[in-house]
């Protein structure tokens, strides 16, 4: 049944037919001119999505976690200090990776539901007179809590402290769905993936890398081969990969970029905001609270929602799946049992979102949540009606 | 956008991925053993869906209209009398075809919203002392009005009149979605199509034919070649077609039958009833009326719903399409402007149906219908919750 | 195995991925604007392939046989005389259809391996002082014998006799593969199909119809509904079909036309000639004879090849299938057992053709044919090398 | 054009439709029961292909190179010594990776065209009294030279030296195409990929890991997170991945295993041998030499073939691609310009192989190679005929 209903996990997202078909491509010779002519424009066009003119795009056949590893291992050496704020599962995991790679991780502990603490970053960086901190690591969109952080504010904090550290950003669950301005925000490495805003299958991690980050490649002592920027850039320059490329995903990426540019990136972002507002309207109608603590933190790609006291969010997501064939995100880490998540990113429509809201409402009612059937749907309907784009084109 | 949202027209229906992939088959030699081994079981297994052990299944690469033409041209001769009741657009079109083929059509005019009038059939047949009537033509499920007729009652009427006419039934929009009992009901020719309950692309008309009907083949004088039962049966017996077969649809049909039998025909019918009841609950919640005049006539595959006086149903379906990317059936014939239709057949889930209800509600609200947003959805949710099957399996 | 090797039957042809994916389209509402905007240009663009500016294109969800039935039933009345030359299985079948529809068929019997006998047509038409002959029926490319007829010569014969009969041409296995000039040749109805030069699945018959043919619609007395030109044209004018259209095939047709026009029709024809010449070079190298009696008759889409005396062509095609997974056309009608056929139409490459030649050579050797392994392949290779287009582009 | 012709690169291989369709699966929730029930049997069944009952299978979303990195980083520490023989590009690259990861690489230089030197391994291991060598790294099938090494002999050498080092084997281009016996050969880590014998898209590296190798996980000091065995095994035990899994490839893998087991692994290997023998017969007929120096070294998945003195192998592969749309493997490393490669692994048929041979022959002739057109094809045909399996079943 899960093939018929959309998924409402915060990625991988529902793959539009157009992209499924693009990825159906039969094996071609990745050393032949076809491929060479395909790869270069894909890398170039992806820069627009990252918001960079001066950086470059590097991709590996891996998941987002591999992208984090590429980010640190190409720029840092064992013993280097990195500054990270922990406010969710994904920032937590990145910290864990840094520790395993022998980095000295200076952690700013934050309450889950909050975002990147620019002021505390500034204080920590200002205190670092010896400039031991080599990189600041930030999760743009914390998928576990549905919190979007203000990267521009982090950059401002770094600038205020006149600190030369690299700024690395995890934008796996935000890129191509929410505005991202790598150049304007002074981001040095941004890590994204094929399976979220790009609406493709999992299997390609996509990085935006600044020249400043590239300048660290030779001095970085962390060992790497599969994720080595140098090998990849050298091969890319000749039109290839240092090993077998993920051909189907690259053709998929070409088509994904076409779709994004046809719709217009600003329209893509506006659509995500609009759908997210619908979900938030439903949440209010149910009388439930978001994990994100204030409107400026609300993510437009995923909403983490507290269940009422005395209820178990895992029972809710289980019910939705077993009774109605619907997949929602479970609560991760300290949110397990306390919150569930609705993914609303990628190629969704109003009525797809409404179907998810209608389904979770039924599951809530089955479990005797104090909500009224149809109330969340009605609130979202009201929002969708009021905010409907003037002209609606078919996606032929 | 229409590729992402389900369609709610009463056919062609949403094609499950499993069947789309089955129809992706590359060209094979239709004279090779592969094909021979594929076709025979498909024809045999389809008999179960028609509810016939004694009849046979004949298929042509055409639409349902072609099946009607096959039915009459293989059994009747110019000047033959047929008895038909007109209570909707599809019964009307069949009448028109008979007239064009030089048949003498004895029409029983009925109000739209009613079904096959067994008593009036009996009267007409009893009055036909000369046995001029060669066939009684009945539309099992009138797609224009959402009315299901009682074929067993028509058969009882024919038997009561001891009339030897053939009984021909259009079950295009009912077969494989609602119970059909060709043998039990004494149906001589039943006409179905690939694009409704079989969930495939349009392009194959599928007929169940009794031995009694086959006995008329040689004497029937209406000209036909493409639709000739004899050529088809002769070729089928050797494993082929008298011309190029619709290979992709036949492979699709094989997989469709597997899906139907895996779910179980009774479960398929029960699922259609349950979803239809949800739509009817929503209709009541909106304060709207079905075109079908009484519960015994309610179709489980399509609901035709009157819009309130003063409203134009075409404006409603247009709004749903242009504003929300949703396709519903327009009002046909005398219902044009007065009623819209919700198709709820084929491979649908609860939440897919809810998405359609939520969408049409928004369109109604946009046009100032006197309905409350979320009310229809809530009524359907309530029904779906109450009637949820105990165990829900994944469709892996 | 047949999914991996190309088929070498004279249609349906190997479907390029690009068209298979185009036909994967999910169900859309055929009454919605999307479809309306799709259908009209498809019909219009198809005119270029027929070589007509003044005629129109009409399509039905059926096979080529249905197209023949549409051609005669929309223009003729029972008892009308038609003039046909019989020189193969397909001309034979069309004759049979005319007879079943009550037409008076004046047959010119020709030896199989010859084409349309322009001089004998002229004689027959000149002798028809009463102008009883209403139509001349010609098979452009006789798939059973691999013979291409000269339609311009038939038109010249008709003109020489100043005869007003309609000229109907079966171009099922030639259109979109070999030049066809409906206007220049004065063809009134041309019948083609989706599954040959258009490289699609079977299921759509495509007719080019002149205004002169359309002028016969009202007076034509043969009964028809499914295949009625008037209903179809009326519905097409409003953007639809009189019944459920074969949506997937129409989207496929749109993409097929794009492919044909991208390659250029002249290039498509030249490619077919070049590949056919390769097959004929192989045939000569094997010391075998074509059924087509002279080079001017050689078809560029299918070659029918006599097996040596004492050999059974069915054993050969069986061997190729069972031993090497290759499908070739069997000998039809009086050629059964005496000739086999190699289809070389649609989207084929040099090396695909060579694979077929290599395979049939192995089967011949297995059956002790007096041929040398590799000899046919080498002759075709020599031709392909010598005639290679200067520039070869990838079909990205 | 490359979509129509098979590719003859030594991987990625031509993907059968059945597997392309399996990988078309829409996004599902990788934390839902569906996925859990899918992953475990896939991992378990893959053990059969590795030939291990006691080891386990670990997979990462990456290419083969990533698998090498996983192999060393989960078992070794900086400064550890590894023993490797260099006899081709892939053994060379693995050496390079080890050096970059701070390992002390003891290299046995061998002539390209030879395989793993068991005797020299034994000498080196016997000389290592201090047991500094922690691992022996061997490339089972050197894709650059078309050389298959005798892993059992390497194991025997290790045993003869009573050396406790781990035995790591790259079987990327051999597994699922040529026999591999992990348990019998005492292999500790075997590295394979999705895109060769498994006939899938690139993107999943698949490792067979012995308990002995797993025992090194905790002590191994090379940093890793993405490729950490422990995280993966812990997550797999709960039915998931430590990050987003490559869902489409896992569903593809499930179907690939079905295909392999349906054919039977022994039949799969025999088919590869038979096709490879055909290519070698053609090579002899052309008067060319294999890079592999003796028959016991011949790979059944790829043949590297020297071009005659004075010719440039790159010109040949370019010609084949630009003139005939065929992709062959170029000469890698010291073979660049001197040899080209024919990949003959994955789902190929006799006639597909013949099409490649016919194509490269044309390219050779175009470049004035001293070969006779059709000669290689004929030699392969002769072999294929003689070795044809008694019964050939369709791959319905």
Automatic annotation (TrEMBL), chains A, B, C, D:
Q: Which SUPFAM superfamilies match?
A: PLP-dependent transferases
**A GO molecular-function annotation:** glycine-oxaloacetate transaminase activity
Task: State the InterPro entries in the record.
Answer: Aminotrans_V_dom (IPR000192), AspGlyoxATase (IPR054863), PyrdxlP-dep_Trfase (IPR015424), PyrdxlP-dep_Trfase_major (IPR015421), PyrdxlP-dep_Trfase_small (IPR015422), SP_NH2Trfase/AEP_transaminase (IPR024169)
Segments spanning the bilayer are none
User: Could you say which cofactors this protein requires?
Assistant: pyridoxal 5'-phosphate
Q: Which family does it belong to?
A: Belongs to the class-V pyridoxal-phosphate-dependent aminotransferase family.
Q: Cite the Pfam families for this sequence.
A: Aminotran_5
Q: What is this protein called?
A: L-aspartate--glyoxylate aminotransferase BhcA
In the UniProt record, does the keyword Transferase occur?
A: yes
EC number(s) reported in the record: 2.6.1.35
**What domain of life is recorded for the organism?**
Bacteria
Q: What is the lineage of its organism?
A: Bacteria, Pseudomonadati, Pseudomonadota, Alphaproteobacteria, Rhodobacterales
* Transferase recorded as keyword: yes
Supply the gene name: bhcA
